[in-house]
Amino acid sequence: MKKILSFALLAGVCFASALFAQDSGKATIAVTKVQTSEPLKQKLSKDGGLPALERVQAALADRLAAAMKQTGKFEVVTRSDLDAVLAEQEFADSGNAAVQSMAGKLKGVDYVLTIKIDDFQDYVKSATFAQLEKTTEKRLLRLGLVANLIDVKTGVLKETVSVFLDQSDISEEETHVTENGKLNDSLIIAITQKASKRIAWEISYVVFPIRVIAVTGNIITLNYGEGSGIRPAYGFEVFAVGELLKDPDTGEILGHEEVPVGKISVLYVRPKFSTAKAHVNNGIAVGQIVRPDGCKLTPNEE
Q1: Cβ contacts of 227 within 8 Å, gap of 6 or more
Q2: d(Cα 52, Cα 141) in Å, to the nearest integer?
Q3: Are 119 and 143 in contact (CB under 8 A)?
């Protein structure tokens, strides 16, 4: 829980998405246009790097919406839907400040997700081997961004996810072959895919924690399946939810007490759920919260 934030009205497709989400039990999340920090934009403008950045922004927007849906927890309202009622200039000029000035007014939307790129580099290194008549090129991409999840009902910044990734590829070409432009955009696809999945997974775990949905002896079923980042052999710790915790000085609600009751490892992952085996079971029960134990759920492992 951090700052108080806000938003504006949605219409048409937003209402339809929200009604479907309510019927299905899913949350509706509005994904705003991917922004770039002004200092980075100015730097890339001087270096000629804006075209590559624009391709990254477009790819990130598409893949982020897809990754959010693949978690199975959200209905997604994309930027094209938001444009029906929100002026482009508001977001282009002020980024998250525009969101902060319009708290709690989105109809039928539970969360708003804003993305800002604050680090990006795209360059190619070349090495020529005359005797082999080969030129080796290595393209390097670096991407850093911050995602903010806003709870529309409370107007609170619920979670911030920072992502920093780098991606490289090597290609060999004969020295007498000439090609226009840089290497293909496969690296852009790869790096935006990883960033999108990491954001989607971390956001989904905040809104919908991994939970135990069935227990048969030491066989434990979890409510996340394919598209969630969970993989076979991943280890988790299970917690029973206890009393509500409140800061005695500020009165702020800090969450609930979490008491460890077991350790599990994933056996296999189905489309909509996962099955694990308990190695420590001190009262694992349906409804309890599950958190990573000694592993990082990251798309780098794919």
Answers
A1: 67, 70, 71, 72
A2: 10
A3: yes
Band (pLDDT 50/70/90 cuts) for residue 277 is very high
Each residue's pLDDT tens digit, 210-246: 999 999 999 999 999 988 889 999 999 999 998 888 8
Q: Using alpha carbons only, give the angle 223, 228, 230 rounded to the nearest 5 degrees.
A: 80
Query: 210-294 belongs to which homologous superfamily?
Result: FlgT, C-terminal domain (2.40.10.410)
Nearest to 185 by CA among 57, 80, 79, 300: 57
Cα distance between residue 21 and residue 228, in whole Å: 19
Domain ranges of the chain: 13-115+148-157+177-207, 210-294
Give CA–CA dist 273/276, Å, rounded. Answer: 10
